[in-house]
């Protein structure tokens, strides 16, 4: 039961992070991306949000009760964010 309370916030954070990182004016390419990675980094992770949404069957997730509840709560607090969560593409 605790996971269902955390899941909406995790999903909102993931979508917000994707939104903010995809709105940059300059895009990192293979050549200049290495300058952003600290020399002492032990792990590098990349998340392809579009592909993740395809694999997770986002249309089905949108129909789930926890997602609908989260959208209703976000709609009350931040209607703009609710629009993004309702249709992130």
Q: What is the mean predicted local confidence, pLDDT?
A: 78
- By DSSP (H or I, 4+ residues per run), the number of helices equals 6
Residue stretches low in confidence (pLDDT < 50, at least 5 long) are none
Distance between the termini: 29 Å
Based on Cα principal axes, name the global outline: elongated
The largest pleated sheet is described as:
none
The topology string of helices and strands comes to HHHHHH
State the total count of DSSP E strands: 0
Percentage of residues in helical conformation: 55-70%
- The computed structural class is mainly alpha
Spatial extent as radius of gyration: 16 Å
User: Which range does the strand content fall in?
Assistant: under 5%
Kindly describe this structure.
The chain is mainly alpha-helical. It has a domain at 50-89. Helix content is 66%, strand content 0%. The protein has 6 helices and no strands. The protein has helices spanning 2-22, 30-33, 49-55, 58-63, 65-77, 79-86. Helix 1 (2-22) crosses helix 5 (65-77) and helix 5 (65-77) runs antiparallel to helix 6 (79-86). It starts with a helix and ends with a helix. The model has no long low-confidence stretch (mean pLDDT 78).
């Amino acid at each position: 039961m605790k996971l269902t309370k955390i899941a909406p916030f995790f999903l909102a954070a993931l979508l917000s992070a994707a939104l903010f990182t995809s709105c940059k004016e300059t895009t990192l390419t293979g050549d200049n991306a290495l300058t952003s990675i600290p020399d002492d980094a032990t792990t590098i992770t990349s998340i392809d949000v579009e592909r993740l949404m395809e694999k997770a069957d986002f249309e089905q997730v949108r129909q789930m009760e926890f997602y609908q509840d989260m959208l209703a709560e976000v709609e009350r607090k931040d209607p703009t964010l609710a629009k993004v969560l309702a249709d992130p593409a």
